Amino acid sequence: GGHRPAAIYTLIETAKLNDVDPQAWLAWALAKLPDHPAKRIDEILPWNWKAARTAEALAKAA
What are phi and psi of 52, to 5 degrees? Predict the structure, then answer.
């Protein structure tokens, strides 16, 4: 029964390894999930988080 906690721990540690604040990333990613296409899930993974946020900021500024 430890699959879910292990998955969450893995996500948190992956964020840390990518120099990403786990809490900020998880909040952002969980907010994106309902409308995000499954085939583009890689866009919201921790190692792509900074680039995605930069792109969002540029889109809002335009």
Answer: -65, -40
CA dist., res. 29 & res. 18, Å (int): 15
Q: Give the ranges where the chain is alpha helix by DSSP (H).
A: 3-17, 22-32, 49-61
Print burial letters for 4-25: b (CB count within 10 Å at least 16), e (below 16). eeeeeeebbeebeeeebebeeb
Taking only the tens place, the pLDDT of each residue in 14-46 is 999 999 999 999 999 999 999 999 999 999 999
Q: Domain segments of the chain: what residues?
A: 3-61
**CB distance 26 to 11 below 8 Å:** yes
